[in-house]
Specification:
The structure holds two protein chains of two kinds. Chain A is of the alpha+beta class. Chain A has two helices and three strands, in the order E-E-E-H-H. In chain A, strands 1-2-3 form a three-stranded antiparallel beta sheet, with no helix packed on it. The chains are: A alpha+beta, B mainly beta. The interface between A and B is medium-sized, with 26 and 36 residues.
Chain lengths: 74, 152
């Protein structure tokens, strides 16, 4: 992983088009400003993970698998 | 009356009043705004969240308390506002709220529950949201009770 040290008010670039500004720093949080082209999707990681998990959940599930799942839940 | 031919459940008819509205869809399924909550006695405590616009989209879910009896719901202010609970109007109370975890198949026929992002349904307004938590208290792949102790 690349680690970069930045202060409040400073920025960094990802490629030519994505700019991340450090707007505010607290003891347990940072506030970031992100400038990116419209086609770049910016999401909280938890939402990204949930999107992937939802796609898994909507996939093929056989009646046998559902029967087995029921056993573990009852 | 709405009719849908569900991939998992076959033909379903239901009252328009029973339709759940997800104003923003669900992550990865932003195009799915209308769902039906289908309960079958033989499948309890599993329930089915069936999209009314896309028959192929049907989630298996269970009450979060069936997965973790001590589960504590926490929503962002933005999500609470979007759902209209605990907001300025205060129209709905905790008893009207149903909290479900979406179940996903994992490796070797096991299932996990997404406790990071419960589906929160206000039964009074029939509005719903998948409320993605900001903390890391719960996993998006929580092992189901009974799964962890089972030997293969």
């Amino acid at each position: 992983m690349l680690v970069i040290r930045r202060r409040c008010g400073e920025s960094l670039m990802i490629g030519d088009a994505v700019q991340i500004d450090i707007l505010e720093c607290g003891s347990s949080h940072v506030k970031l400003g992100i400038r990116a082209p419209k086609e770049v999707i910016v999401l909280r990681k938890e939402i990204h993970l949930t999107g992937q998990q939802n796609h898994l959940a909507a996939g093929e599930i056989s009646p046998d698998e559902i029967a087995r799942l029921l056993k573990t839940l009852r | 009356m709405a009719r849908i031919l569900s991939k998992r459940l076959g033909a379903i008819e239901l009252d328009e009043a029973a339709v759940l509205h997800f104003p923003a869809g669900l992550p990865g399924f932003e195009h799915c705004a209308r769902f039906a909550l289908i309960e079958r006695p033989q499948a309890a405590p599993i329930v089915f969240l069936q999209s009314l616009d896309f028959p192929e989209v049907c989630f298996l879910a269970a009450p979060v308390t069936a997965v973790d009896p001590a589960y504590q719901l926490e929503m962002t202010a933005e999500d609470s506002k979007s759902l209209g609970i605990g907001g300025i109007d205060g129209k709905s109370s905790a008893e009207d709220v149903l909290c479900l975890a979406i179940l996903s198949p994992a490796e070797s026929g096991r299932f996990t529950a997404n406790l990071l992002a419960p589906v929160v349904i206000d039964r009074k307004s029939q509005r719903a949201i998948q409320a993605v938590r900001v903390d890391s208290r719960y996993s998006h792949r929580h092992t189901l009770p009974g799964e962890a102790i089972e030997c293969s």
